Design the sequence.
């Protein structure tokens, strides 16, 4: 099925550079990652969970380190460790009287220090570190793509089933609870899925820029949209166009940049345009 | 429900809504057909993200359908939301952004959301706080009418003793502990009020108010209503 999808993409997007298999795989990967990140990002902004996402992405090092210690494929330990960290943060937030950013700060420090400590022991791994910092979508394997397809189906189903409820909870958890929305379940499932999306996004744009992939489309969407439905579509549009443009630009000879940062820069350009739009709209109304 | 600042009024409401952990027991009668009592909640001040692009219509339809708002809303649901807005005299606000509403407007939209639950118990936490006198008056009359039409029980926290004297059929006075309960005239006595508030609150007696005017006109309300 993956072969057919890649060939289809090569036919759909008739750029010369996209006739190579690894570029087709990269594009397919981005077309799966970017809408997921955008959709989850809308709620990350509503829930003010940017720091949470940041902590998860930085646990990538520790996840990989854990794989090395246990001699398990890091492709498994990384997402699973991220999932564990995400759920642990949620559980601690519910039980502790400390503020949520304090808890995240502590967990952040713990996973980061653990990861770096292991990595610093092993010179061989240190070389691999760059892949995590900047992302490496061009080396995505068909195995990764299969995992992405499964995750994509899960996130899509969750978004269709829960978008309205998540809006409700994001607006006011107390109001949602009083009106019989079971907030706890949604919060845990959201945190779990977000952790997985973040971990897979690390492949695409790197640890340092994952949060941008979540936040920038959502922030731009808030500027363009004037109600809650279109906000979702705007985020998708911004995210997917940035991803495709970023991939194509980064592969040009004159650019020669890393794919991840190029994608994020395209998103930031979108955001700039949205800021100008807001200004103009205000001036017209005034 | 009456009491000074820090008496625990809001906390008690939140316990009733199941939103804070508590010791002891809250006994609640089952609602219609033995189900859990349906409650509507109007918070004191809704602290929310005013930058969120959400219209009043979005706000009133998001709870009513599973289908995500980005796939459109059912027409019937929009009609129902419009009816609710008309009931709280906010039909002109349907397309406005939630973050752009004034205190009084937001209060009425929140009331519409609570009414959407078709509540058997409507819980309001100081609904007149942060609303000007005119707005408070409109809100007050609105509640009177809705309560008559729909026949729900209304549990309301209030600072305004004048409103309480003229609207409540039953008053609960608390100050960290339970102080007294009963009909307003039996509870809001000089002794009780000075014990709780530390000074005599002359407002408790309607006749002592300027022009005999109260915070809300309730001449239409039948006396002896349960």
Sequence:
């Amino acid at each position: 099925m993956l072969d057919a999808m890649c060939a289809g993409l090569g036919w759909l997007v008739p750029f010369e550079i996209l006739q190579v298999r690894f570029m087709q795989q990269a594009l397919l990967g981005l077309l799966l990652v970017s809408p997921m990140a955008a959709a989850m990002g809308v709620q990350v902004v509503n829930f003010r969970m940017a720091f949470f996402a940041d902590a998860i992405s930085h646990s990538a090092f520790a996840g990989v380190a854990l794989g090395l210690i246990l001699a398990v494929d890091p492709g498994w330990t990384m997402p699973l460790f991220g999932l564990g960290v995400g759920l642990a943060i949620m559980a601690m937030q519910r039980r502790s009287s400390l503020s949520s950013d304090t808890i995240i700060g502590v967990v952040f420090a713990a996973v980061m220090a653990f990861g770096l400590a292991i990595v610093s022991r092993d010179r061989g791994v240190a070389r691999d570190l760059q892949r995590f910092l900047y992302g490496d979508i061009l080396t995505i394997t068909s195995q990764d793509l299969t995992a992405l397809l499964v995750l994509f189906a899960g996130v899509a189903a969750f978004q269709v089933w829960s978008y309205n409820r998540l809006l409700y909870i994001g607006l006011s958890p107390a109001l949602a609870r009083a009106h019989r929305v079971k907030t706890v379940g949604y919060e845990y499932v959201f945190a779990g899925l977000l952790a997985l999306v973040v971990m897979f996004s690390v492949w695409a744009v790197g640890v340092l820029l994952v949060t941008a992939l979540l936040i920038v489309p959502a922030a731009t969407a808030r500027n363009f949209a004037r109600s809650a439905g279109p906000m979702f579509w705007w985020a998708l549009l911004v995210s997917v166009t940035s991803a495709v443009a970023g991939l194509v630009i980064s592969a040009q000879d004159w650019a020669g940049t890393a794919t991840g940062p190029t994608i994020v820069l395209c998103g930031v350009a979108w955001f700039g345009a949205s800021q100008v739009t807001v200004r103009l709209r205000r001036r017209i109304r005034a | 429900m009456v009491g000074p600042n820090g008496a625990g009024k809001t906390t008690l409401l939140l316990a009733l809504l199941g939103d804070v952990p508590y010791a002891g027991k809250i006994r609640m009668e089952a609602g219609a057909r033995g189900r859990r009592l349906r409650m509507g909640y109007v918070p004191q001040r809704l602290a929310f993200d005013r930058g969120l692009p959400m219209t009043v219509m979005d706000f009133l339809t998001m709870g009513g359908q599973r289908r995500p708002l980005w796939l459109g809303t059912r027409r019937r649901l929009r009609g129902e939301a419009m009816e609710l807005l008309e009931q709280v005299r906010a039909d002109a606000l349907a397309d406005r952004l939630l973050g752009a509403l004034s205190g009084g407007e937001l209060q009425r939209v929140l009331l519409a959301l609570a009414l959407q639950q078709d509540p058997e118990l409507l819980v309001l936490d100081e609904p007149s706080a942060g609303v000007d006198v005119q707005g408070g008056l409109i809100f007050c009359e609105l509640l009177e009418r809705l309560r008559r039409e729909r026949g729900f029980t209304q549990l309301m926290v209030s600072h305004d003793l004048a409103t309480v004297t003229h609207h409540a059929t039953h008053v609960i006075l608390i100050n960290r502990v339970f102080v007294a309960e009963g009909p307003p005239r039996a509870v809001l006595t000089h002794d009780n009020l000075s014990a709780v508030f530390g000074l005599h609150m002359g407002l408790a007696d309607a006749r002592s108010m300027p022009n005999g005017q109260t915070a809300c006109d309730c001449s239409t309300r039948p006396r002896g209503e349960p």
About this structure: Residues 142-171 of chain A form the longest helix (30 residues). The mean pLDDT of chain A is 90.
